[in-house]
Amino acid sequence: MKREFDVLFAHNEFKAEAFLDELRGKKPLFVLAIATTETGKIPGISAAGKMPEFTDYTPPADAELLLLGRCKCINGVPVTPDGIPTPALISMSAIRLADVPVLVCSGGLKVKPQIPFMDLGGNPGMDIRTGNSVDNVQEIIDRAIIAGENLAKGADYLVIGESIPGGTTTALGVLSAMGIHAMGKVSSSMPENPHDLKAESVKAGLAAAGESFGSLRNNAVQAISCMGDPMMPAFAGLVMGAASEVPVLMAGGTQMTAILSIVNALKADVLCNVAIGTTRWVTADRSSDICAIVKEIADVPILAADLDFTGSRFDGLKAYEKGIVKEGVGAGGASIVAMATTEGAVTKEMLLRDIERNYALLMGLK
Amino acid sequence: MKREFDVLFAHNEFKAEAFLDELRGKKPLFVLAIATTETGKIPGISAAGKMPEFTDYTPPADAELLLLGRCKCINGVPVTPDGIPTPALISMSAIRLADVPVLVCSGGLKVKPQIPFMDLGGNPGMDIRTGNSVDNVQEIIDRAIIAGENLAKGADYLVIGESIPGGTTTALGVLSAMGIHAMGKVSSSMPENPHDLKAESVKAGLAAAGESFGSLRNNAVQAISCMGDPMMPAFAGLVMGAASEVPVLMAGGTQMTAILSIVNALKADVLCNVAIGTTRWVTADRSSDICAIVKEIADVPILAADLDFTGSRFDGLKAYEKGIVKEGVGAGGASIVAMATTEGAVTKEMLLRDIERNYALLMGLK
User: From A98, which residue of chain B is nearest by alpha-carbon distance?
Assistant: First the structure.
C-alpha cells in the first residue's frame, strides 16, 4: 500500500495521494458533529459507555475533551466497560500538536457539553427499532449547509469528525434503507462485532417504518428520519455546504459510508472534493469492510492514519491493537491532519508519546 | 478628521490609521453576539421593537438576516415603531459585498434564531431594575474565551457585532457600577435620547443590588451580573479569547464602552489589539459622547464608517440621517471591514445602492 508521512492510501490510491497533497501545510478547521440516540442504548450494541445511560454523556464529554483538554460533564474521560479510553484522546493530542482550531456542532443532544457549541436545531435521536428515529432532518441539513458554507470561508479545508454511540447501527440502517449492501460490513467499537444484533435492529426498524431494503434509495432525508441518527444530517449538511468551496476530509470509520450515501443522493457534485480519513484499525479490520461499502456508493479515496499502539506502556492504549474502539471523534482524520499540516513533522511515534502523556495526566496514572 | 477609503479616524487618529492598515486585504470573520433582556422592554427605552414583546424577536431576526439574507422568525425585517429598518440591513449588505464569513453566538435568548448558532450557555437577561440581570456570567465568559481562541485561529482578524434591544441602558448600568461617568453620554436608537429614563433605571438597579456608582470598579463579573445583559459576557469573552492572537474590531456604538470596561478589568493586555468600529451617526451624535467614555477607560482607537443615506430614494433609510437607529448588528464595523477587505473597492455609494436593493427586495418595495 502506498503511503506518505504515516498516512496509508487505503483505497483509490492516486486520488488519496492527490488529496493528501492538497492538505500539506494548509490551515484546517476541525469540526466535531455530536448527537445522542436511544439506539446506542440497545443492550450489547455499543462499547461507548459502561452503562446504556452513560452513552448520553459520551458525545458531550468527547467534545469537552477536544476543546478544553479535559472533560467537565464527567470525571476522567469516557471509557469502554473494560476501561479502554475514548479515541477523543487521539484527536485531542493530534489537533493540539498541530494547533488546529476546533468547532463543535450538535445535531441533537440529551446532555449538553459545558463548552461553546453550535446548535443546529435538532433533538436527541430515538431508537431505530421504532422506524422513526430523527426529528427535523431537513431543517438540520439546511442549517448545517449554511454553517458549512460559512466555516469553509475561514479555512483552507475542513476535517469533520463525529461522536455518537450506536452510530454504526444507525449507519447500517440508513445504508440498508438506501439499498447499499452493508450487512456484515459495518465496524464495531467492540472486538466481537455484533452483526446479528445490528441486523435485527435494522430489520425491526425498516418493518416499523413500513420500508424495506432500498425502498428509500431516492429519499435520503426520509432514510435518516426513519433509520438514522441526528449526527447524520448535521455531518452531511456540513459536508454539502463546505465541500462546494474547499476540500473536506470526512473523519471516521464505516459510519462515514452512510454520510457518503446521503451526500451522494443530495449533492453528488461536491464529492470530487471529499475523502474519508480513518485509522489503520478500521481499514485492517476483518470484521468489517469500509472499502466495499464505499465502492458501492461513490468511489471517494480513503486515507488511514497508520497509528500503532503495540509498544504503548499502557494496557488501555495497547487494547486498540486488539480491535477495541478502533475509531471515533475523528481520531484517524485528526492524526492525518496533524501529519499533513506539519508536513510530516508530527509522526505516529510522536503522537503516541503525546497521547500517553495526556492519558496519564487525565487518568491520574504514572 | 483623517480618513482612508470611506472610513473616518474618529478618535486616536494614528492608532486608528495603523489599525485599519492591518486589516487591508486580510480575511476577517464576522461574529454576531446576540441576547435578549427584559431591560429592553422598559417602556420608552428602546426603538428596537414596535411593542416591548417584539424585542425578543429582534436579535434572532437580525441574526437570520445576516446569515441567510432574510428573516425566518418574523416577516420582513425588524423595524422601529416608525418603520425604520434594522441596521442588520447595512451589515448584511456589507459582509456580502466582501464575502465575509459569519458566525452567530448567543449569550442567552428568549426566542431562538432558525439558523446555526453557537450557544454559550446563558439565559435571557432580567430587568436591571431588579439589580440581578444576568445569570451565569463567569461561565459564559469562560466559554466565549474558548470560542474566541478557536475562532481566531481560522481568521486574520475578528469583527464582533451585537444585537440586543435595551443595550445602551445596560451599558450605562455596567459603566456606572464600574465607576465610569457615562450618564448622559450613551447613545440611543431614537432621535430623542431618553437619558433620564436610562439614569432612573440604572439608579433603581444599583439600589436594588445594594451597590453604588463605582462600587464594582474591581468586579466586572459582578457588575454584569447586577446591571448588564447576557450579550456582554459573550462579547467580552470573545474579545479576550481572540485579541490575544489577532486584531479585534469591536463593532458597535456606546455599548462597546461597557465591553471595553469589562475587558480592561479582566484582561487589559489584549487591548493593544483592539479598536472600536462604528458609524458616523454615532461619532457625530450630539446626544451622546463615545469618545469621552472611551478616554476614561482605555484609549483605544475609534474608526467610523462614513455612511451617508442623505441621497437615498427610501424614507426608511433617509431617516438614519435624522439620528434614528444610528448603529447596531455591527453595521459600522461591517462597513469598515467591507472597505478594508476590498482595499476600498467597496465605497459608501456602492454600499448604499446595495442596501437599497436589499431593502426593496425584503420589504416588497419598488
Answer: B153
Residue of A nearest to B115 (CA): A143
Report which residue type is found at B194: P
CB–CB contact B144 A102 (8 Å): no
Q: Does B109 touch chain A (CB under 8 A)?
A: no
Using the Cβ of A121 and the Cβ atoms of chain B, whether some distance falls under 8 Å is answered with yes
Distance from CA of A102 to the nearest CA of B (A): 6
What pLDDT, in 10s, does the model give residues A312-361? 999 999 999 999 999 999 999 999 999 999 999 999 999 999 999 999 99
pLDDT value for A101 = 97
Task: For residue range B245-263, list pLDDT tens digits in order.
Answer: 999 999 999 999 999 999 9
Q: How far is B116 from chain A (nearest CA, A)?
A: 5
Tell whether A69 lies on the interface with B, counting CB pairs under 8 A: no
Q: B155: which chain A residues are within 8 Å (Cβ-Cβ)?
A: 154
Q: What b/e sequence results for A103-131 when a residue is b if at least 16 CB atoms lie within 10 Å of its CB, and e otherwise?
A: bbbbbbbbbebbbbbbbbbbbbbbbbbeb
Q: Per residue, what are the HEC states of chain A?
A: CCEECCEEEEECHHHHHHHHHHHCCCCEEEEEEEECEHHHHCCCCCCCCCCHHHHHCHHHHHHHHHHHCCCCCCCCCCECCCCCECCHHHHHHHHHHCCCCEEEEEEECCCCCCCCEEECCCCCECCHHHCCCCCCHHHHHHHHHHHHHHHHCCCCEEEEEEECCCHHHHHHHHHHHCCCCCCCCCCCCCCCCCHHHHHHHHHHHHHHHCCCCCCCCCCHHHHHHHHCCCHHHHHHHHHHHHHCCCCEEEECCCHHHHHHHHHHHHHHHHHHHEEEEEEHHHHCCCCCCHHHHHHHHCCCCEEEECCCCCCCCCHHHHHHHHCCCCCCCCHHHHHHHHHHHCCCCCCHHHHHHHHHHHHHHHHCCC
Q: Are A114 and B153 within 8 A, CB to CB?
A: no
pLDDT tens, position by position, B138-172: 999 999 999 999 999 999 999 999 999 999 999 99
Asked if residues B256 and B333 have their Cβ atoms less than 8 Å apart, the reply is: no
Query: In this complex, is the C-beta atom of A105 within 8 Å of any C-beta atom belonging to chain B?
Result: yes
Q: Nearest CA to CA, how far is A153 from chain B (Å)? A: 6
Closest approach of A144 to chain B, Cα-based (Å): 7
Question: What integer is the mean pLDDT of A78-89?
Answer: 91
Residue contact B118–A117, C-beta within 8 A: yes
- Cell numbers 454600499 correspond to B351
Is the Cβ of B118 closer than 8 Å to some Cβ of chain A?
yes
Band of residue B366 on the pLDDT scale cut at 50, 70, 90? confident
